[in-house]
Every structure is written in structure tokens, then in C-alpha cells.
Amino acid sequence: MRPDTEAGARLPEGEARSIVKLRQTIGMLSRRLALVGLVLSVGLVAMAAFVILELRTKQLLDAKRELMTLNTVLAEETARAMQSVDLVVDTIVASLSKDGPPTGEGLASLAGDRGFHEGLKAKIAGIPQLDAVSVVGADGRLVTFSRFLPIPAIDLSDRDYFAHLRDTEVTGSYVTEPVQNRGTGTWTIYLARRLVGPDGRFVGLVLGAIDLRYFDSFYRSLKLGGRSAISLWRQDGTLLTREPAIAGVGRQFRIKAFTPDLVASQGGYYEVSDAMDGVHRFVATRAVTGYPMVVNVSRARDDILHDWRNQAILGAGATVLCIAAILGILWTLARQARANIARAQAVLAREDAVRAREAAEAQLRQSQKMEAVGQLAGGIAHDFNNLLNVVIANLDWLERHLAHEPALLARVKDALGGAERAAETTHLLLSFARNEPLSVAPTDVNDLILRFAKLLRSTLGGQIRMELELSPDVPNLTLDANQLENALLNLAVNARDAMPAGGSLTIATRAVATATQTVQVTIAVSDTGPGMSDEVIARAFDPFFTTKPVGKGTGLGLNQVLRFAQQAGGSASIESRPGEGTTVQLVFPVSAPESSRMAA
User: Fold this and answer.
1) Integer angstrom CA distances of residue 40 from 43, 297, 320
2) Whole-model pTM?
3) Within a 13 Å sphere around the CA of 489, how many CA atoms are in the beta-carbon half?
4) For 317-358, what is each residue's pLDDT tens digit?
5) How confident is the model at residue 410, as a pLDDT?
6) pLDDT per residue as tens digits for the range 3-59
7) Which of the 8 DSSP states describes residue 437?
8) Can you give the residue ranges of every domain in the chain?
């Protein structure tokens, strides 16, 4: 019976080995099939994505080329239109100055002069954008006008452009802001020339009135279609006209076309996600040569990419079909092994469940261990706090009974301060153990700094001189005094490390009234160290960022200072320049009662 028993014992072991081997074989086959499918799928997706992105890039580049070409043509056409008006105005100025600089009396003599009036009408004939020309006297009244004779009593002295040209020495042509006709509501800009008499004084203006409807009609005739737009601007951001029309003619807008870089380069191309009409657009911008004007041509991004989206959908659909076909073939190849794969997966799942249970049990044990550590820390802090209470009580007794011994009394006070700070530390530890909030109370900032200065001086060492500039009108702040001490200590240590050869550290406080009738307290910590660059300042408050050598700093000090200031409802900032030292400024709001006291 013994041999049979041995044979029966070996059979399950052989089956187990077969199951393991089968599982390994099936697993390897499945992995290879999956790898082949993954490689083919990723290759197809990558190729499709590359083609789609290339098509998108080409579509955007084509649109950019078209917009910039059209923009250049429109800017040149606008310049020619303005030059035609400028030539007429220049001719009128020349005729007024043919016998010398014009005078007020000479301009006044033009009133009622039919020959001069007819000459003005002849000059504007055939120039559709030029609605009228006129001569204005020094008092702002029309002297002669191409549109009417006799001249109507029109006073332009209340116009902004008249006051500007009267009071400012402007040479050459001046393009005014758009002016809306008070009767018809149409918009006009004036190309103006300043007239100066023999004595250099202002005697009047020659105005060429440019009807902005000319540009509206011209832009509309281009029939760009879709959500394309053409707009004409002054270089100060004032909208002159736009097709299609939009509210805002005559108003200044802050748009990217008038950023310093684009203005300096006289043109460019940019993308804006929220244009004036709320549409995501690509914009070509070009300055009008010789005039303070800018032409913008834009198209909606959705319109530009419309054809590309259709191509992308077709390409993505074809890719999906190819991937589906590949996966279908691979699925067919793996179909015969599914039963064995499922069996192997069941075994693995059972093993995974066992491992998961063991991991959960280990995590529970670790959690219980950490809970015990927290309770132990809390118990130690509690016992240590009881011991400190005894120490503090005896030091209080000594302080009361050693008033006649100044030297001993000073030492007792130092010991009492240290014991109280130790008590605050145990309070923090207890707060950690019990998950309690930190102690927040009204705090006399100046008194805290004066008391804490001794510790700071010992921390700084003999090579660094510390100065206090404490404003006497600083009110109390409601915050955690211990956290403020920690912040000051962090800043002092940073200053000390920045001045290995010595220097000075200044702590200053002051109260500042804000525009909203509230009061803020500023605590500034300044050193005479090497300072910081703008790049370092930008990252100084980032956690784990430090410029100290490896092992000399954690990069958490300034981050802790910032977090404390923000938790107290305030802020922290750095002012520094290389070679000029560093100032870290903490700003805290003052509670309403304290603000009232300051105001009183």
C-alpha cells in the first residue's frame, strides 16, 4: 500500500506543475499578442495623429499667409486713401501760404469768397473718401466750407481735436479721433493741418473730413464671408470702423494689436481667445505707413479649422476601423486560450486577494502603531507640561521675591521666558497629538519683538548688528505669537546665512491706513546682504527652493513664513536687488476694534 500512496501523492504535484506551465505559456502568448496589438495600434494612432497635426499646421499656416497678405494690401490701400486726402489738405495750406504765413485777417477774408469755395469743391471731386474740406479760424468758427455757401454758423471750439491742435505745436498732418455727426449719427475722422501766423501763433486749421462709411463700404465689398472681420483703428486703440459692424466706434480698447512689441514692429500676427465679439480669432495687424492708424484682419479659428476638422474626423474614423480589424484578428487568435487564461486568472486573483488582505492587515498595524506614537507624544508633552508648570510657578515666585536683586532678577526673567517658550512648544505638540487649532490671541507686536530680540541677537552672532525701528502707534494683532516668533527667527537665520562676513539686520514695524479705511500692520525685516535677482525672488517662496549649498538649507523657511502670513489673513513679499540687500515684508490686517482705536 505504500507505493500506491506515494503515487497518489505525486499526481497532484504534477498537475500543479502543468497548470503553472500552461499558465505561463498562455500568459506569454497573451502578452505577445497584446504587445503586437499594442504596437500596431500605437503605430497607427501615432501615424494618424502626425498626419492630422501636420494638416492642422498647414491649415493654420495657409490662413496666416492669406490674412497677412490681405492685411498688407488693405494697409497700403488705406495709406493711399489717406494720402489723397493729405494731398488736398496740403494744397489748401499751400494756397493759403503762397503770400507768406497766413493771418487771422487773411483767413477771415475768405468768408463769402465764392471763388475759394468753388476751388474747395473742385479739389474734393473724385475723392470718395473725402466728404468735405474746411478752414477754421483761431476762435473755432468755420471760415469757409466746401459743402455750403454762405457758411453756416458752426463753432468747433468745443471739439477735443481743436483744443489739442490749438494748444499743441503739431507739425504735419494730425488724424483726429472719430466724431459722430449729431444729426445723422455717422462717424467722421478729420485729417487736420495747423495754421501758424507770422509770429508763430495759432491762427486756425485746415480740415479734411473723411467719411468712415467709405471704409465700411470698401471692406464690405471684399465679401470675406464666414466670421471674418476687418477693422480700422487709431494707434491709441480707438476703434474707427469695423466690418461687420460692432458697437464701440469711438471707444478705446485694450487689444493685443497695441502691445509695445507689435506697435514697434509695425505689424504682426497673433491669436486671441476672446475677441471683441467673444469669438476665438487669429488676427493679422499692420500699421498704415505715414499715419497713426492700424488695420486688423481676422478670421474665427473655427472657420479656419472647419475643413481640417472634417479631414481629422475621416482620418480618425479610418484609424479606428484599422485598429478594430487588427484587434479582431488578435482576439480570434487568442480565443482558443481563453478558458485556460480565465483559470490562470482565477488562481492569480485568489493569490492577489490573499496579498491584498495581508497588505491591509499590515496597513492596519502601521496605523495602530502611529496612533500609539501620537498618544505617546501627547502623553510625554502632557507630563513635560506639568513639569514646566512647576518650573514656571517657582520662577514666578522668585521673580516676585527678588525685586531687590536686579542681577538675579534678570536671570530669573530670562529663565522664565525660556520656560514659557518651552510651554508653547509643548502646546504645539499637544495640538498635533490632539489635532487642535493653534492659539490665536491679541498680540502686542512691538513688545513681542523687543522680548524676542535677545534670542535673535544670540542667533545672529557678534558679526551682525541688529537694529529695531518700532513705530509706537502699531496696534495689537490677532494672531499666533509663537508662529510670528518662528517667522522672525526664519528670516533672521536666512539673513545671517546671507551675510557670512557680517552686516546689519533691521526689524521695523509701522501701521498703515488703507484706502478702505482699514488699518494694516507691516513688519519689515531688512538685511545688507548680497540681495537677490528677479529670478530668485520669483521662486523664493516655493517649497524646497533654496540657493544654499547642499545640506545647508531645506527650502522650507520662506514657504513657512508665507503660509503663516496667509493663515493670519495677510501677505508676504520680497524687495531686493543684487548688491543692495533684501527686505521681506509681512502685512497683517488689524481687527475692527483695533482699527477703530487707531482711527480715534
Assistant:
1) 5, 44, 12
2) 0.49
3) 13
4) 888 888 888 888 877 877 776 666 566 566 666 777 888 788
5) 82
6) 433 333 343 455 455 556 666 776 677 778 778 878 888 888 888 888 888 888 888
7) P
8) 97-211, 437-599
Nearest to 132 by CA among 85, 93, 179, 72: 85
Of 497, 488, 493, residue with least CA distance to 561: 488
Residue 70's alpha-carbon distances to 62, 66, 73, 219, 298, in angstroms, are: 12, 6, 5, 11, 10
Q: Is the omega angle on the peptide bond into residue 128 within 30 degrees of 0, that is, cis?
A: no
Strands of 464-470's sheet, edge to edge?
Answer: 464-470, 503-513, 519-527, 582-589, 571-576
Q: Yes or no: say if 256 and 265 are a contact pair by the CB < 8 Å rule.
A: no
Strand partners, 525: 507, 584
From CA 154, how far away is CA 509, in angstroms rounded? 63
Helix (H) or strand (E) holding 395: helix 338-401
Amino acid code (one letter) for 140: G
Query: What CATH number does domain 437-599 carry, 3.40.50.150, 3.30.565.10, 3.40.50.1820, 3.30.420.40?
Result: 3.30.565.10
Query: For residues 427 and 287, what is the distance between their CA atoms, to the nearest angstrom?
Result: 68
Q: Where are the alpha helices (DSSP H) in 97-181?
A: 104-108, 114-124, 160-167
CATH fold of the domain at 97-211: Beta-Lactamase (3.30.450)
Is the dihedral angle over the CA atoms 184, 185, 186, 187 positive or is it negative? positive
Cα–Cα separations (whole angstroms), residue 15 to 23, 27, 30, 90, 342: 12, 18, 22, 108, 17
b/e code 249-258 from CB counts within 10 Å (16+ = b): beeeeebebb
Residue 38: its pLDDT value, please? Answer: 84
Question: Is the CB of residue 398 less than 8 Å from the CB of residue 412?
Answer: yes
**Spatial distance between the Cα atoms of 164 and 536, rounded to a whole number of angstroms:** 47
What nine digits make up the cell of 195? 495754421
HEC per residue, 425-488: HHHHHHHHHHCCCCCCEEECHHHHHHHHHHHHHHHHCCCEEEEEEECCCCCCEEECHHHHHHHH
Q: Coil, strand, or helix at residue 332?
A: helix
Under DSSP, the state recorded for 187 is E
DSSP state of 141: B
